[in-house]
Give the backbone structure.
Amino acid sequence: MDLLSLRYFRAVARREHISRAAEELRVAQPSVSRTIARLEAELGVPLFDRQGRTIRLNRYGTAFLRRVERALDELDDARREVADAAGLDHGSVALAAETLLPLSELLGAFRTAHPNITMRVFQSTPEVMRDQLRAREVDFCFSSQPLHGPGLDAVRLLREEVLLAVPAGHALAGRTQVTLADIADEPFISTRPGHWQRALLDQLFATTGRRPVISCEGDEPGATHFLIAAGLGIGLLPTIARTDPSVMPLAWLRLDTPDCIRTLSLVRREDSYLSSAAARFRDMAVTHFTEIAHFQQAE
């Protein structure tokens, strides 16, 4: 039983699909199939239930996977810790976030300060983020809603009001505050269910016994500004997204309702090794968003 066999098994177990695991591992499918067969022969039990081309992790495989993931995670952390201690490389940081536009300034600053640190950035839904943290595919997730799961640690980066953005020529554009009743029939531009903007919108309207009218929904929160400015509807945006009217013709209003708040957190696995590169990124992220919070309070 060697490490390569265990890594092959973990990939197949996570995907429950030989071909997809082979693509992820960048090896030929027959090689993966033979490795799994040898591993099962060595253990003396089948790890998967097979029906045609379909495979499902069985109770032996489920128990074995828990141990394999723990062992491989420990080895990966050990490699990173030794490399940090010996100064063998400059490290790497992997991140996931629902939208990447608000992070561009932070990422650029970190790249300038640490040009030799390798960075990988993913755009992910909260559900995918949880899987990425579990699989240790990322060091951190930027989350605007709680990521539930055992062993997750969150550092609050920013707590800010969520505003209502409307096109500059909209009938509500001259107001500074509105109620939910004022916008009950307005078409909304929002993200798909699962993203924090949609979760907050549905939560606010649930208090009225109604559902919001959704005119446009997608997976890129950063596009919301442009769609609102184009007159396709109105939408909820965090204070950090507020733009200069001369750059983006939008009017910004407060909602007369409690808890119209977005909390941005940096989430990681408590049991994972925090490399020096990851620690430097965490510290820079905290400083960056602390400065943003102070700027917002000064406005």
User: Anything to note?
Assistant: The chain has three domains: 3-84, 89-156+263-298, 158-262. The first strand starts at residue 48 and ends at 51. The mean pLDDT is 89. The longest helix spans residues 59-86.
